[in-house]
Amino acid sequence: MRATGILVLVLALVACSSPDGEAPTVDSTWVAVIAEVQLADARASLDSLEAETSDSLRLAALASHGWDAGDLEDALDALSQDPDLAKATYDAVDLKLGLERQGVSPKGTGQDSIPTSMLGATTTSP
Questions:
Q1: Confidence grade of residue 106 (pLDDT, cut at 50, 70, 90)
Q2: Is residue 77 part of a domain?
Q3: Are 87 and 17 in contact (CB under 8 A)?
Q4: Which of 10, 36, 44, 100 has a Cα-to-Cα distance from 29 of 20 to 30 A?
C-alpha cells in the first residue's frame, strides 16, 4: 500500500503550506479518485472478508475513473511537490466525503465532483 504512505506524506506537507497567495485550482478528478480510494480502504477495514479484497476494491475505484495504481501514485507524487495544492485537494476531498456522509449530493456541475465553484473547474490526468 505504497499509495497510503504517499497520502500520509501529502497530508504532512499540508501542514507546511503557506497561507499567502490565491488558492490553487483543484483537479476534480483527483478529488473523486482520492475520495473513492479512501472509501474503498474504509470499507475493507470494516469487514474482514473485504479486507482480503482491499486491493480489488481500490483497483475498482481507480478503474471507474480510468486510472490504475500508477496513475494514483503519479497524482500523489504531484501533490507532494505542491503543498498548497495538496492542502486544497485534501480540503476538497474532506468536503466531498463530508457531503456524502450527510447524504448530500456532491454533484454541482454534472461531474462526479463537488461544485465547480469549490474546485476551480479543472479536470486533468496525472
A1: low
A2: yes
A3: yes
A4: 44
